[in-house]
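#struct-pred

JT: dropping the chains for the assembly here, can someone run the whole complex?
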Amino acid sequence: MNYLLQQIINSLGFGSIVALLAAGYTMTFGLIGLVNFAHGEVFMAGAFTAYFILTILKLPFWLAILMGLVGSIIIGLLVERLAFKPVRGSGMITLFIIGLGVSQILRNSTVMLFDARLKGFTISSFLKGVYMLGEVMIFKKTLFIFLPVLAICIILVYLIKNTKLGIAMRSLSYDTQMAQSLGMNTERVIIITFIISSALAGFAAVSWGYIYGSVHAGMGVYAVVNAFVASVIGGVGNVLGAIIAGYIIAIGGNLFIAFLPPDLVGLRPLFVWIIFFIILIFKPSGLFRANIK
Amino acid sequence: MEYVKRSNFIIKYVAGIGVIIFMLFLMERFLSGFWLTLFMLFGINVILAISLNITNGWIGFFSVGHGGIMLAGAYAAAFFTLPVFFKEGILDLNLPSFILHTQLSFLPALLIGGIVGTVIGIILVLPALRLRGFYFCAGTLGFNIIMETIAENIPEITNGPMGLRQFPPYTNIWWVWGIAILLIYITWMVKKSYIGRAFIAIGKDPDLAEHMGINLLKYKLYAFGLSAFFTALGGILWVHLILNLFPKAFNLILVFEVVAMIVIGGMGSITGSIIGAAIITFFSDVLAPIEEGFSLFGFNVPSMLGLMTVLIGVLLVVILIKKPNGIMGEKEISLGFFRKFLRTKQT
Amino acid sequence: MSKNPLLKLNNVLAGYGKMNVVNNISIRVNQGEIVTLLGSNGVGKTSTLRTIIAQTDLKKGEIKYKDINITHFPTYKIAELGIGYCPEGRAIFGNLTTKENLQAGAYLLKSRQKFKENLDRVYSLFPILKERSNQIAELLSGGEQEMLAIGRSLMNNPNLLLLDEPSLGLAPKLVELIGKTLREINKEGVSILLIEQNAKMALEISNYGYLMRKGSIVLEGTAKELVADDRVKEVYLGII
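RK: done, full complex below.
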């Protein structure tokens, strides 16, 4: 029982990252049908911005978090305006290919500017160490990430359910022209959605840096796959579903390898794909109600 | 009359083949190592591009799993082509005895690897076939990771992440371009035949195709089978050229490059795939040394690894925005095309 | 006829891409009036309405609202000016609840007080909506959805309401209710431009009307004049 609890606690860090990424991903996916394969690199951009501020400029951690958000937002908006807007309305495959192209551009540009190695995050001393809950170990840094992320998720879901912006997003995703007829400036709503989505990715990126102690140019690819699968499981456009699915995937993945013989640990990446295939074959609409048609 | 037409036809074919053989002979004779290798890489890219075009461009199932198929085929062939002393002695691989103690020549290895790649490709694609459009595409993305993860985690068979070396350098320009020309010929003939039209019908409107009596599953399997076979051959040729193989060998960048080839060239066009392959080969292999850094007029340009991939990415995005059908669209190059071109030049 | 109409279309030529569906249309709606567009299916009535809210390609002509030239305004700006739109076939947001649809309708409303007032107003007009307020709109019946669509278009206190076939596919009792509702809100000052297949109901409540054919206006006049006209009777054989 304790072992199980420990595995779950250990998954909260990665789970938070996937939850944030999946939430952001599903927002743009549900809103304008945008398959954003470049989301992983928006994520990575935030990580590198934070890395730059933290480790190279050696500035305080709160500035790194802030600049991480800014970095992701800037890259996210640039990608949207330059690569996705010109082809808005195209089929999902076209959008996927463009996303693939953009992701290669961003990823290799980062390799060009920095290099492909791991980049260490300098972690402030107060984030090191563990709390003990009986026999279960909780890393301080996990808690420092999980709690804010939980708060962010609650705020996000509230925003979508109860505010004008949320109603605008959901209306727009169902029938853009009708939404405009009601006075909604849909282009602006889309931009705001991208900003939120990118900011979530930025926070996830900084979290990654703190949890794993380092970032690298390829971190986006694995993360975006997890985010994509989580958003499909959670139901397209369903932010709460994506968040929950994100945690489920992380916890599930950890439990999966926890109960495997030790030399099969390398099979971890397969878990997400197995889940993906199972869901797509048996219940394509996801486990939760999809928000959008 | 018939007799004359027939012999005209045969003469054209024989002459054509003769010209090709002659050119390959000249190339092998007179091209330096770099240019020869380059031309072989171009040939392999042509094979990969045209194979991918069959599934992505014709029957409209956009697959990005070709990395996994190449991996499967390459490993399968490698088990047979690697020298016995290496397999048994140095690595002590846990392979069945008949594989461990044989070393085959290229042709049987190609066939075996091709068939293994095809079988694995079809097994993996079957569950995904019921997915439509983009979800199919996302599913195939997993092939690569699945095969890579498997290859990494059964070191008794594949030597894990360290990979395999000591490959006999079987690949030469004859094999590469022989297979490439064979593929071009097959796909050209297929495109003109009923099978090809069925493929394209499925790509354009699967429901209509079904109503016209086309057995969807059968033709999809044909398409995937043909595509996977030659994709696997491409992987095998590659591995016997660069002489090593490891799980990450056919990673996302390679997958991406082949996708770029067919999109830039024009999905659905064989000529387009060849042109696309040429362009990507140009960037990826001819211009590649630029990445290492160089000096120009006394300026030292530093090394910029990954620059070529960035440029290919930019090219891909620009084409998708400005000319989404690619350079050739769905058309092929033909005499009519040349005549039109000449006519507009004269007027 | 007052000198300054609320809404003016002058020689408008519009369509979709290369196709022209609205051929040289000139229409006036005066403050406080109910004006009807009549005509059989496919003559361009819906497209005329859509042109007003900038959802077609307008090639020639101009549209003026309260003397403001709105010809090239984007849709949302036109809504901001106080023009409400209730399209054909309901067009409710199926993924939102009834109440959320009404909230969407009140998007431009700034005051919470006004929102509550308007919400109560819509609920009193269509009590069934209050009962179903937390139900997903997709699951409402056809009639309920139509009421929701009309209610939603009222949430923003529009000055000019564009309604496209509000009675389509509805039971006679509901059609009566809708006619009554339109008359009520018109008395409160809302001008209405109406498209209706049910010419009887439309001409009963309207002041003025236009008969369209093949994208152009072939006849216009007061409701009384139109009711008596043979051409109108010809289009709506048996209905009048």
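JT: nice. Chain B touches chain A at residues 62, 64, 127-128, 130-131, 133-135, 137-139, 141-142, 145-146, 149, 152-153, 252-253, 256, 259-260, 263, 304-307, 309-310, 312-314, 316-317, 320-321, 324 (CB under 8 Å). The beta strands of chain B are 294-296, 299-301.
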